[in-house]
Design brief:
The complex is a heterodimer of chains A (about 120) and B (about 325). Chain A has about 120 residues and is α+β, with helices and mostly antiparallel strands. Chain A is built from eight helices and three strands. In chain B, strand 6 and strand 7 form a beta hairpin. The model of chain B has no long low-confidence stretch (mean pLDDT about 85). Classes of the chains: A alpha+beta (about 120), B alpha+beta (about 325).
Amino acid sequence: MRLIIKESNSNNEGQQLYLHYDGKEWVEKWEKKVIAFSMEMENHLQEIEPIRNQVLAGQLSPLAYHIEAKIFNIKLLSSYTGISKRHIKKHLIPKNFNQLDEETLKKYAATLGISVEELKTV
Amino acid sequence: MITNFEHRPSAHCETGVTSNILNFYGCKLSESMIFGLGEGLSFIYIPFIPFKGNALKFSFRTVPGSVFARALKKLGVKIGVKRFTNKEEAMKEMDNLLAQGIPVGNVVGMYHLPHSPYRTHFNAHTLCVVGKEGDEYTISDPSWHTTLLKISYSDLMRVRFPAGAFKPNGKMFWIKEKPVIGDISHLIEQSIQKTCKKMLGIPFVSYFGVAGIVTMSKRMRKLEKRYGEKDARVYLASLIQAIEEIGTGGAGYRFMYGLFLHEAAEILNKPKLKDFSIEMTRIGDLWRLLALECGRKIKNRSEVSYNDLADKVVEIAAAEKKFFLALKKEKLEKNNS
């Protein structure tokens, strides 16, 4: 039967509460945390390693890496932040990205769920 | 704060929230019953969307929101539905309803939800807001958590106004008057008929119902030639996701429909429907076996070819066609007598 995850507890590190349906009632059970999702994320980060190298080589701005790493795209980012797609494409070039003001950086950071400092590094 | 709201965990978000809200007003209808009454079961091979990455190509249910709307319309419950352009206004209107002691259902985006483990831009997740204390809201998310959760004002506002495809625009729904639900047996018969009609397909359109499953099998045969080896595997992965992960997480809603038929047999007092319920569960198992085979194919652990997988899909299509033809006839006979 289907498992339902309950919040992980500080008492049981690395474990989560599952509910098993044994035909009559729901029984609670502590089991090891499902790591499928984190494995998928690791895979994804490995796949976009070439983009990271491009950023380190100075061909792309850190924004390009973070868009890929956080599973966003330019269209979505544009509609969340209100910055036009044409401008976002400009900001993917390192020279333009370095000239950005604090306000625009904050907008990007808040949407991607990271701090401004993290946005500037890869 | 509403104190007597009973939070019951469920398999699927939309039906779970609907069932919980009805339960709050004293109408004991189970989750699967709502699913059956709302004619949720379907199969759609979504056409015209180019396959790229993990774009959604298959759907095992009707459009999000339709199950809730159809089921409550049939039951004759008066509901209010509202969308907004202004974010602050949306929160204010919800606060007013909560102050009157009315639980409010919300359609939210999944990406920024704090307790969500998934990072997908899916904008049709449903949850129910139960109360407000200061700057924090109490929410009931029946498909993921067994307890009530807390969420901050800014987080809730953010998930109510996501960007991307199918923007909910702060869509919220609530029940206006205390509903009185009488005999629902004729509603059950009606919804079973409509589901059969939907699954057996519209003539000359090959994307919906059983015809859609056949179309999928045809596409699967040319998968490798068309997309290349790597992308063909991603295609299979998105099929597994559609069967096993989205919604109830198991056999693409077939188990839930089986449970509905089982309950219907007791309400209508027609024991033959129980056989149909068992058959539906068997079809659900076939879907799960298909997902298992696809998983092995992706991981390179078996030498199944795409043709073999397509044959399995054809088998499922045949089983579903037989099932729904029989179910349709079954109801007609009963109506005549």
